[in-house]
Design a protein that fits this description.
The chain has a single domain, classed as NAD(P)-binding Rossmann-like Domain (Rossmann fold), CATH 3.40.50. The protein contains ten helices and seven strands. The protein has helices at about 1-20, 25-30, 45-55, 70-75, 95-105, 130-160, 180-200, 215-220, 225-230, 245-255; strands spanning about 35-40, 60-65, 85, 110-115, 160-165, 205-210, 265-270. A seven-stranded parallel β-sheet has the order 3-2-1-4-5-6-7, sandwiched between helices.
Length: about 280
């Protein structure tokens, strides 16, 4: 009995090793020749994601309302990895549909969607005007839904795809003055879970990442001084995140290495939300 158990155990180990080695580790983490559609790609976290994806071999469709996106795409492109600049507003369904159609026609497919575009105007609940609330929900929640719907249909036809929504630690904790932002990011997490449930049968993975304060140009200004010092004290790691750290987590979720992860909200917050 003991001999049989040991033999059987060794057989199982060999089978597992064989299965794991059928795809090289480097290939599982690679984005080589993958077509990635990234919103809000011209600055901050979006630019860091686009830069890492380009360095990892992905072909880029970069969507942003800033006309400077044309120069950014040119700077990120290399001969074997083109970067397509698409100018438009995620709040405008016609803009989104046009950009997705152009990207799909240009590359022939879309393998990855990174929904990164977002805004964060701050007001106390009692002072939040309707128009600012509506704008925040439109950019942070309706926009990602429309982009994901349009690209989701392409991925359903392809029978594969990876979608990563960039949410925030504000999706799970309350932050004073962030009523519209918190609501929009919590909604984005809910959106991703439903899409993961509905689209899993098409081999489409849908996840969120939720960063803490990220030291982009805007983040550094908004959370500078004593305000930032007080918040950092509540982060177990003792610091805020750098844009490249968010990009690395997004790249993992977009890779084949994350094939078994869907419907999750990955906190990238240095432990802030474990309090």
């Amino acid at each position: 009995m003991t001999t049989f158990s040991v033999a059987r155990t060794n057989e199982l180990r060999l089978t597992r090793r064989s299965a794991m080695s059928s795809i090289p580790t480097k290939q599982r983490f690679s984005l080589e020749n993958q077509v990635a559609f990234i919103t809000g790609a011209n600055s901050g976290i979006g630019y860091a994601i686009a830069s890492l994806f380009s360095a990892s071999g992905a072909k880029l469709a970069l969507f942003d309302r800033d006309p400077q996106m044309l120069e950014t795409a040119e700077a990120l492109a290399v001969p074997a990895q083109p970067a397509l600049a698409l100018i438009g507003d995620v709040c405008n369904t016609a803009d989104v549909q046009k950009a997705v159609k152009i990207a799909h026609k240009h590359f022939g497919r879309i393998d990855i969607l990174i929904n990164n575009a977002g805004i964060g105007p701050l007001r106390p609940s009692e002072e939040m005007p309707d128009d600012l609330w509506d704008k925040t929900i439109a950019v942070n929640l309706r926009g990602p839904f429309v982009v994901a719907r349009e690209i989701g249909n392409i991925m359903i036809a392809q029978k594969r795809g990876k979608i990563v929504h960039v949410a925030s630690q504000a999706s799970v904790v309350a932050i004073e003055g962030h009523v519209a932002y918190c609501a929009s990011k919590a909604g984005l997490v809910g959106l991703s879970k439903v899409q993961a449930l509905e689209w899993g049968k098409y081999n489409i993975n849908v996840n969120c990442v939720s960063p803490t304060v990220v030291l982009t140009e805007l983040g550094s200004v908004a959370w500078g001084g004593e305000k930032g010092n007080e918040l950092r004290k509540q982060v177990p790691i003792g610091r805020f995140a750098e844009p490249h750290e968010i990009a690395a987590s997004v790249a993992f979720l977009a890779s084949d290495a994350a094939d078994m992860i869907t419907g999750e909200n990955l906190m990238i917050d240095g432990g802030y939300t474990i309090h």
